[in-house]
Amino acid sequence: MNEHKIKLLYIDDEEHNLHSFKATFRKQYEIYTTVSVIEAEQLLDTHVIHVVLADQRMPVMTGVQFFEKIRDKFPDVIRILITGHTDISAAIDAINKGEVFRFIDKPWDYKYVQNAITHGYEIYRTKEELRQRNIELEKANEELDKFVYSASHDLRAPLMSILGIVNLALIDDDLSSQNEYLELIRQSVKKLDTFVINIIDYYKNARGVPVISEIHFDELVTDVLATIQYLPEREKVVINTHIEQDKVFYSDAMKLRIIFNNLINNAIKFQDDKKADKKVNLTVTCTAQQVQIKIEDNGIGISEDDRINIFKMFYRAGAIKSGSGIGLYIVQEAVNKLGGEIDTTSVIGKGSIFNVLIPSINNAQP
Amino acid sequence: MKIATHFILIDDSSFDLFIYEKLLLKSGMALSVQKYFSAKEAFNWIKNNAENMPESVILLDLQMPDMNGFEFVDEYSGLPAETKEKIDIFMLSSTIDNRDIERVKSNPYILDLLSKPLDIEMLHTNLLRLKK
């Protein structure tokens, strides 16, 4: 509760003013008081203070001089000047030099003081939020920049490959190689298409409004497996599914689909060509509170260096089979958005296990 | 005058390696073509065969996993001067990013940035200019 109290600092050379102020407002605010401007500055250094009130008439320096002094060092703190008598030149100085937020006349009016503090604090909070938004925006811009850079590469590279193949096909008089060129073009187009689909998934995931519905994992998995049945590597791999669900589970089907789709795709894609019994085991254990998804393959495995990095945007492990490096990034984002966790264990040459834990959404709401 | 030299291709795309090998061999410019999926592997080969390798032209892709084109050139810069004298590096990339282009221009070890798909005439002109 204390965390949400407005924190005040009140400086006045007359100690009884400090006492009576504290007595009046101590229940509402967290109040620091001092008779010394030096101590006041130390308090500002060591504590988070939202609003500073200072008496104008003090022996070492005036309230305005104090404000002028602390203005640059603590620009966010809201400054309120307390004056015993109206002095126009002090008022002008207060506005121009001390940049004060309000004047309070002595003797003060309870409501007026409370009002000034409330409004001052609102300004403080607004500035704070603005700064927070700015930091978030800068981060988003940076990500966007990186995204555009890598996306432009991944969009252009397959196109330039196709153009290269076409150029080559045009100067090749041997008609029997034309089919080979067409096959290369087909693969390049496929690669580009996969990337476009990934980008769309990414945006649906990042910007889309979550739609919470009842999830039936057997249906979801059947759906996902149906979409990947045409993968060239698919027919060589045996997929065992084991799904346990007897309770109702709520989540965002779109995000779950992204998770299943990418993880199963990877498990199929990164198989070991040397092994005869290529297999993927998919286990889903669902309770009313959470679902545990385990996707296990006996493929080529992931090195420790790669394992740490595979969830980063555009990180590609291994040169030959890797895609654009966005799939697992999207998985991670989806898992985060669902409030879940994902971890990976892998042994090179033996295979990899991806474990995903996701809470049911209805559970989060009391 | 017609160029005839040895080529080393470094690219993570098997399509591009295939295309450029064919193009170079067809053009008659290539005495031999070596292909590398990984910049690290290519670097190790050069390091281990520096003494016996013939004068070669490297066509280097920019964006590759593990070691990218710039990282390759960083490693390359540490090789002995005699080795570097035998090698000319061109960067071959689909990038249109200005920062990349500036970086290539300012790099003393990269002769030029050629855009994908490789224009064989342009490469020929570039190499002729080098030999003069």
Automatic annotation (TrEMBL), chain A:
InterPro entries, A to Z: CheY-like_superfamily, HATPase_C_sf, HATPase_dom, His_kinase_dom, HisK_dim/P_dom, HisK_dim/P_sf, Sig_transdc_His_kin-like_C, Sig_transdc_resp-reg_receiver
Gene3D superfamilies: 1.10.287.130, 3.40.50.2300, Histidine kinase-like ATPase, C-terminal domain
Name of one Pfam family that matches: HATPase_c
SMART domains assigned to the protein according to its UniProt record, in alphabetical order: HATPase_c, HisKA, REC
Catalysed reactions listed for this entry: ATP + protein L-histidine = ADP + protein N-phospho-L-histidine
Keywords: Kinase, Phosphoprotein, Transferase
Domain Histidine kinase positions: 150-362
Documented EC number(s): 2.7.13.3
The Response regulatory domain, residue ranges: 7-121
SUPFAM superfamilies membership: ATPase domain of HSP90 chaperone/DNA topoisomerase II/histidine kinase (SSF55874), CheY-like (SSF52172), Homodimeric domain of signal transducing histidine kinase (SSF47384)
Residues the record lists as 4-aspartylphosphate modifications: 55
Annotated GO MF terms: phosphorelay sensor kinase activity
Annotated protein name in UniProt: histidine kinase
Organism: Dyadobacter jejuensis
UniProtKB/TrEMBL annotation, chain B:
UniProt xrefs under PROSITE patterns: RESPONSE_REGULATORY (PS50110)
Keyword Nucleus among record annotations: no
Response regulatory domain ranges (all copies): 6-131
Family matches, as Pfam families: Response_reg
Cross-referenced InterPro entries: CheY-like_superfamily, Sig_transdc_resp-reg_receiver, TCS_response_regulator
Domain of life: Bacteria
Keywords annotated in UniProt: Phosphoprotein
Location of 4-aspartylphosphate modifications: 61
Keyword Transcription set for record: no
SMART domains for this protein: REC (SM00448)
GO-annotated biological processes: phosphorelay signal transduction system
Name recorded for this polypeptide: Response regulator receiver domain-containing protein
